[in-house]
Amino acid sequence: GIYSYSEKIKVGLQQLMAGARCFSVPAITRRELMSLTEECAKITGIPYLMDAYREEAMEILEG
After folding, report:
1. Could you tell me if 32 and 15 are in contact, meaning their C-beta atoms sit under 8 angstroms apart?
2. Which of 27, 35, 49, 51 has its CA 20 to 30 A from that of 13?
3. Can you name the residues that pair with 24 across neighbouring β-strands?
């Protein structure tokens, strides 16, 4: 039910924060987030997963 769903969100957020070396919620910035759908990206202004860090990746590939 709702408990297992919220527990999954909690664990996912903890993993995201640990991977970004942000160990408190206020330490997370919009730059460290990605939208999973284009609709979410349009609404929130957070880059779509396929567009996030695209420029940096292309520089590495071309570099």
Report:
1. no
2. 51
3. none
Domain check: are 9 and 24 in the same one?
yes
* Displacement of CA 22 from its chain's centroid (Å): 12
Please say whether the beta carbons of 41 and 48 come within 8 A: yes
Whether residues 11 and 27 fall in one domain: yes
**Which range of residues forms the domain containing residue 43?**
34-63
Taking only the tens place, the pLDDT of each residue in 6-62 is: 888 888 888 877 776 766 777 777 777 888 899 999 999 988 988 888 888 889 899
Residues 22 and 48 placed together within one structural domain of the fold: no
